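Tokens in:
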């Protein structure tokens, strides 16, 4: 069974003006779709056909197959990113809220996400992770994904220019502020914290 393009969990205009419908149409409908198509092309007729996306990522890493890894990992990263965003502002609750308090509070966590996101050089991702019950903010470059993190990912923000350039030009901090203040899916992060395992790409 081929890897399919995960649908957006909200309407294309649901994140506007932080992220416009035009950006989502291009980012999801073209960039993400291309990663999915290239992943399927790479595994067609091989013993990897029919494997889960996570299995493909692991196999690509083990074989040093950068082409397959880049496309499979970017397929996963983008799906995780769409789920990390919410049309309406959410407030952390329960165990996640307690972990954020231990980090130094929500304002401190938001500031750390914004600082690392703005300071990240070139393309990549900024992640909220958990390890041994403690939250951390981590960065990965290019297509690097959950396997490069020291903790389990709870949510992620895309730092590639195509994620924000149509809406915010080269001012990445404006994009980060809009997303972090109004569109982070804390419920998704809480579910990942509760599961204690890495989120799985929908089959």
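Residues out:
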């Amino acid at each position: 069974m081929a890897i399919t393009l995960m649908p957006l969990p909200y309407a294309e205009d649901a994140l506007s003006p932080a992220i416009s419908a035009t950006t989502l149409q291009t980012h999801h409908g073209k960039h993400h779709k291309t990663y999915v198509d290239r992943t399927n092309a790479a595994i067609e007729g091989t013993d990897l056909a029919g494997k889960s996306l996570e299995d493909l990522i692991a196999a690509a890493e083990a074989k040093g197959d950068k082409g397959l890894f880049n496309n499979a990992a970017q397929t996963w990263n983008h799906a995780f990113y769409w789920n990390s965003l919410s049309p309406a502002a959410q407030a952390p609750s329960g165990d996640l809220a307690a972990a954020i308090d231990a980090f130094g509070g929500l304002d401190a966590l938001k500031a750390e996400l914004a600082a690392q996101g703005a300071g990240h050089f070139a393309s990549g991702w900024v992640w909220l992770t958990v390890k041994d019950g403690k939250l951390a903010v981590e960065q990965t470059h290019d297509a690097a994904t959950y396997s490069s993190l020291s903790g389990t990912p709870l949510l992620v923000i895309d730092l590639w220019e195509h994620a924000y350039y149509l809406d915010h030009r080269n001012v990445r901090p404006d994009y980060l502020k809009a997303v972090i203040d109004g569109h982070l899916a804390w419920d998704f992060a809480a579910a990942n914290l509760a599961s204690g395992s890495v989120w799985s790409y929908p089959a």
